[in-house]
Amino acid sequence: MSSCPNEAKDLKVSPAEGPSEDIGIATSTDLKSGEDVHEVFKQGEGQVDFRTVSWIRASAIFLKMLFATGILSIPSVMYDLGAFPGAINLVGWCALNAYGAIVLGNFRTLHPQCHSVADMAQLTGGPIFRELVGFMFIVTYVITASSGIIGVSAAFNALSLHATCTVWWSLTSTVVIAGCASVRKFSHIGWLTWVGFFSILAAVFIVVIGVTTRTRPAIAPQTGPYTLGYHAIGHPTFAAGITASATIFVSSAATSAFLPVISEMRKPTDYPKAVYLCLSFVTASYLAFSLVIYRWCGQWIASPALGSAGPTVKRIAYGIALPGLIVSGSLYVHVAAKYLFVRILRHSRHLQANTPVHWGTWLACVFGLAAVSFILACAIPIFTYVLALVGSLCFAPLAISFPAWLWVYSHGHYWGAGVGVMRRLVFGLHVLMIGLGVFMMVGGTYGVLVQIMEAYSSGEVDGVFSCADNSGSN
């Protein structure tokens, strides 16, 4: 594949097929002059200034979007794949998702009017493609937010010793998450992302130390013989294997959520630095923490993983991680709501004015999407399966196929007459990347649905809106 840092120089600006009522069309003259007339949020007197995010703060936001869900879910699926294939999956998916994030950013550099992947779809495929991608974007982050609700309700259950019904904890979690998500600007929730990130990091460190000090895993039989279940190479069924792979993939796949953050950065050209810092740390952390936890716990890993070191450590870890879990869910709701908000009020004075229409639209988007996430969290209350489902059904096309499609769209000249072998090879690899996303979407969705049905039939899940804690954090 082509080099990520230099790809923007090689992209060509394709001519627009016609005017759009929703987004402007940037020209090469605009790009050369450095003007930001096509940016969604303008910087002007009398307007709410949304563009206040530095690249360091953007990196923190990206870290928080990725770190919590991945580190809580990856250890529990290592058993299915085995340590070595699991590690290869982890590094490979993180690298591919980092590349996709850079492709998205490069495309936006050429088309600064794009606030989301839906706007990019409008430019490359027309209004029908925009509606399809926009709907998928909303569904993606609504489902991901439901995983945040599950994580927060598991924390409340652990801290309260199951003092009330899990559904009530889920409802409480939804209200708290929606309240935090209602903050309008990414820069205003920037300090929350630092608090959330370090709280999750500290909690995971505590769990890692906790599991290594035990003679046997906390949720394994404490007397008599038992099988640890540690394998260098696992032998899963297709359904279990692709579900595990999808769970690892989704841990770093929220790259489509990076785009709305770019629109609020002071210098959007600093975006690649934020991506490289974020994904480098995420890959190293995932690899170290998940392999250590899997080595000491084997098959006896809770999901989320914070419950793997015994009741006392579990309560301490959840208490420390609670702010991070809340912030994660809030970011997912915020990203989805910001897309709807911009879509509804774009080219209206209410987009950057403190009017009742502005605030009413924003709060309706936030609390409406949070309510949908609550329903999904109660319908599929197993943390790992929710992540695998959203990874397969939504993130696979958004994080794999769609960036590859943008690259192919912008590099059609790589397949023309007289083109060298290397360029044709690179073009072909991106076409294969589109196919990989389709395979993960179809195969992964099938695998996770099989796993969910088996969980219901075996009694692992009691039922929809059950009071039992099915998060897996035993």
Question: How helical, in percent, are the residues?
Answer: 55-70%
Q: Compute the average pLDDT.
A: 83
Number of helices: 15
Task: Write out the CATH superfamily name.
Answer: Amino acid/polyamine transporter I
Distance between the termini: 44 Å
CATH architecture: Up-down Bundle
User: Compute the gyration radius: what is it?
Assistant: 22 Å
Beta-strand percent range: under 5%
Structural domain tally = 1
The CATH first-level class comes to: Mainly Alpha
CATH topology: Amino acid/polyamine transporter I
pLDDT under 50 segments (min length 5)? 1-35
Shape: globular
Helix/sheet category: mainly alpha
Q: How many strands, which pairing sense, and closed or not: the largest β-sheet?
A: none
Q: Name the assembly state.
A: single chain
* SSE succession: HHHHHHHHHHHHHHH
- Strand runs, count: 0
